[in-house]
Amino acid sequence: MNAEACPDLAAARDLLGPQAHWLATGASCVVFTNGPQVARLGLGTYARLRVQVQLQQALAGAGVPVARVLEAGALASGRAYSVEVRLHGDGGAPTGAGWADLGQALQALHALPHSGFGLLEDRPDRLKGQATSAAEGLLTRLSGGWPLTPAPLTEEPLVAAAPDLCAPLARREAALRALPAGRGVVSHTDLHAGQVLWRGGRLAGLLDFGDAAVGPVVWDSASLAFFHGWAASEAAGLPGGRDAALMGVLLAIHRARRARTAGQLARAVTFARMCLTRR
Question: Which residues form the Aminoglycoside phosphotransferase domain (predicted)?
């Protein structure tokens, strides 16, 4: 790839210098690096760099290991960008203390002042959800369907894959509908392994806040459990109990609706079963 053939690379080299090269492309941005730094260039209407920068700066002030923002703004075209210090882990596994570090980092995120509900608006000045009610807020981040909309449970991919789940899910419909009640907290919502860096078993970096949303305090508990297991969520000291399990059910339904492979669908089914047996 060369700068003449790729306008994105040319813009990245303006920000990072001639050593900049492509690193990754995600749903909201394309990422370049020169080694010690990364530049993110927003992509389309889902580019959410302004709110990510705001969150990173707030969390850095609270002592959370997030990428330090060096520069942020808009290119001449109006396209959002940010330049950050590139964080590194050692590829090792977390210790119990590492999970506790992550729990403290998420608690700092949950404590940030905000208004509204749901996926955060992409703005630099304050944290505001896109929706005016908790129930509507869930629909800005999750993929809809039962029980968040009138869609029938029997048409859910999760139930199509595992029909025996239909009855226990139906018995929890009222509880699932009631779950969003309350003010909510700012949550990461997508705590897969690529979002967390470890060094020496301790937390070295919490990444990517593009899907941050205001929702139930147990959202990150369930997200961490989906990707790492309930033992990790408990080791992090995150809120648990019945509400965390119910949030896990909503995530399983969401993941099943988004599944593109048999393995992804099977993972959603397995997690749903785990959540339905928790108390």
Answer: 42-233
CATH numbers and ranges of domains, the chain? 7-85 (3.30.200.20), 96-276 (3.90.1200.10)
Q: Is the pTM of this model over 0.90?
A: yes
- Is there a contact between 189 and 156 (Cβ–Cβ < 8 Å)? no
Alpha-carbon gap, residue 27 to 131, rounded angstroms: 22
Q: Are 50 and 189 in contact (CB under 8 A)?
A: no
Q: Beta strand pairing status for 69-74 and 117-120?
A: unpaired
Other C-beta atoms closer than 10 Å to the C-beta of 64 total 21
Say how far apart CA 175 and CA 258 lie, in whole Å.
Answer: 23
- Dihedral through CA 43, CA 49, CA 51, CA 57, nearest 10? 170
The Cα 257–Cα 251 span in angstroms is 10
Residue with tokens 């705590």: 191
CB distance 220 to 238 below 8 Å: yes
Q: For the chain, give the number of residues.
A: 279
Residue in the structure block whose two tokens are 């995600």: 26
DSSP state of 89: -
Neighbours of 120 (CB within 10 A): 29
Mean pLDDT split into 10-residue runs, the chain, 279 residues: 65 96 88 96 84 96 97 91 96 97 98 97 95 95 93 97 98 94 92 97 96 97 98 97 97 97 98 95
Q: 45: Cβ–Cβ under 8 A, 6 or more apart, which residues? A: none
The Cα–Cα gap between 30 and 227 comes to 24
